[in-house]
Design brief:
Layout: E1 2-5, E2 8-11, H1 22-26, E3 29-37, E4 40-41, H2 44-57, H3 68-81, E5 89-97, E6 110-118, E7 132-141, H4 155-166, E8 171-176, E9 181-184, E10 188-193, E11 196-199, H5 210-220, E12 226-229, E13 242-247, E14 251-254, E15 257-258, E16 261-262, H6 266-281
Parallel strand pairs: 7-8, 7-15, 11-12
Antiparallel strand pairs: 1-2, 1-6, 3-4, 3-5, 5-6, 8-9, 10-11, 10-13, 13-14, 15-16
Helix pairs in contact: 5-6
């Protein structure tokens, strides 16, 4: 696979970047993780606008050539150079501020890197394996705008992943400072109760997920369901009929167990079928 560093193609296995990197030193970096399959970059427009919004919020200087067309061309060039046009890939586009200063940067200009990783399945699929979750209560995230951004500051998710592995859970749910459920370690969360489907609002600190947006769009066109973007209490988890987690790489992951409660995956399967159609047509 090739790596694209500021428009220069390098061998991913031997590529080097400077240790004077603000993303490495200060977490001064944003990124987008995307899925490429069937010669198409899924939901590219949503990824692009989320990235531009994050760069503006973090006061990064957006280069004039960072148009949607130019960045897509850079991604496609990297795919072609990696001979991955017919493969399914995870693509990560990382942007960081140039070196200089300490916490207060001397520069606002940015650099970028595009990385590829091959995936196994061209379509989103539902896993029928056991998927047990638990609350991660060692650390909390703050509700507010910064928590909704996809930045390099992921310590709570990292520590939560270690906790899950040590205790034989497949995932954990993160809480905010008000001890309300915000999201999973690697995606947004939805609770199904009959015809009502609930997901935490962005104001509670959940990631502004691209697949979260797609699921909300799909549900808005289904008359059988009502979507609520409202605060989720931990006490609601055991009352739900279904719980599922969404991210742009895995799609929809149904939860099978939380403590003594087990869950169905009927609605998750229905939404997954519509998601695969949407991904191909957009």
């Amino acid at each position: 696979m090739k790596l694209n560093l500021n428009g220069k193609l390098l061998d991913a296995a031997s590529a080097e970047i400077s240790t004077n990197n603000r993303g490495l030193h200060f977490g001064d970096s944003v990124f987008e993780t995307m899925r490429y399959s069937g010669g198409k970059l899924f939901f590219w427009e949503d990824h692009y606008f989320r990235l531009m919004a994050a760069m503006r919020i973090l006061r990064m200087e957006i280069p004039m050539n960072f148009t949607m067309e130019h960045l897509e061309e850079e991604i496609n060039t990297t795919i072609t150079a990696s001979e991955a046009e017919k493969k399914t890939c995870r693509i990560r586009l990382t942007i960081w501020r140039k070196w200089g200063g300490k916490y207060g940067p001397k520069h606002r200009e940015v650099e970028f890197m595009i990385q590829l990783e091959e995936l196994d399945t061209p379509f989103y699929t539902i896993s029928e394996e056991n998927y047990e979750i638990e609350l991660f209560k060692d650390h909390y995230i703050n509700s507010g705008l910064l928590s909704t951004l996809k930045t390099n500051n992921k310590l709570v998710s990292v520590l939560g992943s270690i906790y899950a592995e040590e205790n034989d859970y497949q995932n954990c749910l993160i809480l905010n400072e008000n001890k309300m459920v915000v999201e999973a370690l690697n995606g947004n969360i939805f609770l199904v109760n009959g015809y009502k489907i609930k997901t935490p609002p962005l104001s509670d600190g959940c990631l502004k997920g691209v697949l979260r947006k797609q699921i909300i769009d799909i549900l808005g066109k289904l008359p059988d369901y009502i979507l609520e973007e409202e605060t989720v209490s931990p006490f609601e988890l055991q009352k739900a009929d279904e719980i599922f987690i969404t991210n742009v790489i895995g799609g929809i992951q149904p939860v099978t167990k939380y403590r003594k409660k087990t869950y169905d995956n009927k609605v998750a399967k229905e939404l997954l079928a519509k998601l695969n159609v949407k991904a191909r047509l957009e």
